[in-house]
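Dear Dr. L.,

I hope this message finds you well. Following up on our conversation about the binding site, I have prepared a predicted three-dimensional model of the protein together with adenosine-5'-triphosphate. For your records, I am including the exact sequence and ligand specification that went into the calculation, followed by the structure tokens. Please feel free to forward this to your student if that is useful.
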Amino acid sequence: EQSLPPIITFSEGLDNMLGGGVPLCKITEFCGAPGVGKTQMCMQIAVDVQIPSQFGGLQGEAVYIDTEGSFIVERLVDIAKATVDHCNEMARLEGFKEGEITVESVLSGVHFYRCHDYVELLATVHLLPEFIKKHPKIKVVLVDSVAFHFRHDFDDLSLRTRLLTTMAQSFIKLATEFKIAIVLTNQMTTKFSPGEDSRLVPALGESWGHASTIRVILYWEGQKRWAWLYKSPSKKESRVPYQITMGGVRD
Ligand code: ATP
Ligand code: MG
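The resulting structure of the complex is given below.
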């Protein structure tokens, strides 16, 4: 069986760091402070998963689960336009037909869910296998963010741990069974340890940390954005700068 390529992000540095892009069959988590670019990254991936196969893409579709209400369709259109232009440019250079991917086709290839609380999120995740069976072009499920409802609605920490564990298992099953990428975003939280300076770590605690196969921390250094590969089964820890432009994520 031929293995499918990963999903590119249009930041070559980030893609190289990940071994070509965001891999299928695995869970990749982007963590970072507000405004650093997690939502932009999700929108970029939702668009790029749709790049036609003649350009080396997956020609797939995306499920986009928005828990925060931060998905902006106009922003998706901007990113889609840039990707469509890029593909048409390649088509001209290689003598392929243009128009294989359009802004309209990209929009209809994003299956959007808005989840207002953790019950809606868990229900949506629970129904995904049936949905993906009906839409076999789906190659990525994005959840932006997984942390939101579990940080604000929760007093019962043992219930939270149980629900997160169940959800993590659902994601692992989806990733392997359907051979799709799972992309999650997470917030950062301050960790206080005795005898140590407090530091920022991904939210939702240590047991959740095992849920994702790959963890990338996005952070600022001065004016520059950096992506830090923090956890990976096969690549060594490293960092690359990236940018967010009008057209989306770039080097
Ligand atoms: P939060 O934790 O609050 O959800 P986030 O990590 O999801 O934050 P994003 O919403 O992805 O952050 O990033 C927002 C940032 O993306 C903006 O502050 C801006 O710097 C950048 N950005 C958004 N649109 C554009 C654009 N059209 N051109 C350039 N940069 C943009
Ligand atoms: Mg966001």
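In brief: DSSP finds eight helices and eleven strands in the chain.

With kind regards,
A. P.
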